[in-house]
Write a structure and sequence with these properties.
175 residues, alpha/beta, extended
Length: 175
Amino acid sequence: MERTHTPLSVWFCAAYLVASQTPGMSAPQFQRQLGLPRYETAFQILHKLRAGMVRPDQDRIDGNHGEHGEADETYGRGRTRGKARGGHDMVLVAGGVELKQRKPGGSLNKRRTGRYAGRVRLAVEPDRSAKSLGGFIERTVKPGAAIITDDWSGYAKLGIRGYCHTAVAERGDTQ
């Protein structure tokens, strides 16, 4: 809010909108609701408010009461500034998700298994090594939790690190 020409009342209305909208809101929708003349202003306010809402010390995924977590990694591609058309750099993104179990017989238990995704953690990692992927798991999952991964060698030593690790062999996965 410091050193902006946007009135404080707009900032407070913006904070209310960001905090009260459950699925989130796009910058154009944000611009319309606040009555801002420029898209860039709406985008900057929204970006600053979202950045301020992130907790750097997020709770780690745990495996209480029959729940467990799953982890995997993938390469993401995106257009890179300054490269020729179609030029992309590959970025390794590691992800972990907490799988929860709904109470039997509940009205929300429409699926046969009753499982649903809980908290999600994502991070950009430098490579697929055991050091990088194991470090990601240690930062995002509590020790002693049950975790399911593919059988990539980068996850092989999770049992030694104090996790109840299950590796599932994926067809076509190369080591």
